[in-house]
Write a structure and sequence with these properties.
Elements (H helix, E strand, L loop, with lengths): L2 E8 L5 H11 L5 H13 L15 H6 L6 E6 L4 E6 L7 H8 L4 E7 L6 H12 L4 E7 L8 H15 L6 E6 L23 H7 L13 E2 L2 E3 L11 E5 L4 E2 L4 E5 L4 E9 L2 E2 L3 E2 L3 E6 L10 E3 L6 E12 L11 E6 L2 E14 L6 E2 L10 E14 L10 E5 L6 E7 L1
Parallel strand pairs: 1-3, 1-4, 4-5, 5-6
Antiparallel strand pairs: 2-3, 7-16, 8-9, 9-15, 10-14, 11-12, 11-16, 12-13, 12-15, 17-21, 17-23, 18-19, 18-22, 19-20, 19-21, 22-23
Length: about 425
């Protein structure tokens, strides 16, 4: 079975945690002791029914306030597919947590309260999902039971969102009317909405095709570790361990090591279970070469006829995380890209993005927490990058404060 990573997004109280709880509950993926704990807490809080949002809201502050604060990861499987869920917060102040949870997702479920319709945070999360190159969006119009399962209201919201989404870069967009609280169109098709002809949410998650999402064309292998076992059996073994970030590598392939530019051929590809005939994203492997080349952590293996851009000047779209400091023109930070680290300087803040209109604001260049801006960076060492739209692994960076070591921004390379 293949694996689908998906995230929930949307404004606060749109029902993200309840939806995940309903998915797990109706697909029989909650253990008895977990369900008993949720039932016990629901009774203590005076709820008239089991609060399925408690399945993912595990922090004390989350349960006390009835909101999601941190990203909660849950795992479950059906006979068709395995799933990793990232339940992300809806509050504006926790947008950075949403970016973290969505950064590895194949699909995003964006929830909308049927009573409120499309709001600012809906647009913000939809744009961030598009910015993160999530190719599959499922818009779930939730709480349909509170609008009498109105087809007219569902169609109004769909048209409103389509107008906004027409400016986004999304390949696959679906709309599903649901009630996470009642279970309508979540796992089973709803009898309350006979006017909706398509499949429920779980069937969509089980059948969405993600095979073409990964880049299997451009071979990229960031070296994470040099393996030198100090044993008699492997006395002369020298391998390079890491995770394939793109393309396909096979024994006998000619490779080039960056930044040195030396070339060699792959002798063998090792995994925990033994040698393999090919390696592709996202496999973690150890590669051995026919020649002795000085390669260390932060270097990259590629193909001589298909190399990434080697540059010290980057154009990036930044999502600013820090509440303690703002992005500084000429500011100095640590930049981390794949397994490579360097220092960088902010050469220019080009514009700040207006989330509601998607217009470029070149007058207001004060970038604070949760703001999104286009920035030009200059690094102290060359990085081996691709455009983010081409490869999410080699097109993403993070900025780290050099004094506190806190992650203060995430960026996508143009």
């Amino acid at each position: 079975m293949d694996l689908l990573r998906f995230t929930t997004a949307g404004s606060v109280d749109d029902g993200k945690s309840t939806l995940i709880g309903r998915l797990l509950y109706d697909s029989k993926a909650i253990f008895e002791d977990q369900l008993e704990a949720v039932e016990r807490v629901s009774v203590q809080r005076g709820n008239g029914q089991v609060d399925l949002a408690l399945v993912t809201d595990g922090l004390r502050a989350e349960r006390e306030q009835g909101i999601t604060i941190d990203v909660a990861y849950r795992y479950f499987a059906t006979p068709r597919r395995k799933f990793i869920i990232a339940d992300t917060p809806g509050h504006v102040q926790y947008t950075r947590n949403m970016v973290t949870g969505a950064s590895t997702a194949n699909l995003a479920i964006i929830l909308i309260d049927a009573r409120k319709g499309v709001v600012e945070q809906t647009r913000r999360h939809a744009f961030i999902a598009s910015l993160l190159r999530i190719q599959h969006l499922v818009l779930c119009v939730n709480k349909m039971d509170l609008v009498d399962y109105s087809e007219e209201r569902f169609n109004e919201i769909v048209e409103d969102f389509k107008q906004f989404a027409s400016r986004l870069d999304v390949a696959d967009l679906k709309f599903i009317p649901i009630s996470a609280l009642k279970g309508d169109n979540v796992v089973e098709k709803s009898a309350n909405m006979p006017w909706y002809p398509d499949a429920p949410l779980l069937h969509t998650l089980e059948t969405v095709y993600i095979g073409s999402d990964a880049n299997h064309v451009d071979p990229r292998f960031p070296v994470q570790w040099v393996v030198r076992p100090q044993t008699d059996e492997y006395h002369d073994f020298r391998g390079f361990a890491g995770r394939v970030a793109g393309g396909v590598f096979k024994p006998g392939d000619e490779i080039i090591a960056l930044p040195s530019g030396f070339t060699s051929r792959i002798r063998d590809i090792h995994t925990f279970d033994g040698s393999v005939k090919e390696a592709f994203s996202p496999m973690s492997v150890t590669i051995t070469l026919e020649d002795e080349i000085d390669i260390s952590r932060g270097d990259m293996l590629a193909k001589p006829n298909n190399m990434p851009q080697v540059t010290q000047d980057l154009e990036v779209m930044l999502v600013w995380f820090s509440a303690q400091q703002k992005l500084r023109q000429r500011g100095r930070y640590i930049i981390r890209h794949t397994t490579r680290e360097a220092k960088c300087l902010v050469k220019e803040i080009r514009y700040k993005l207006d989330i509601n209109t998607l217009h470029k604001n070149e007058a207001d260049l004060e970038i604070g927490m949760n703001d999104i801006a286009r920035v030009q960076l200059r690094t102290t060492a060359p990085l081996f990058v691709d455009a983010y739209k081409k490869n999410r692994n080699t097109g993403s960076i993070i900025l780290v404060d050099e004094f506190t070591n806190n992650t203060i921004a995430a960026g996508m390379v143009f």
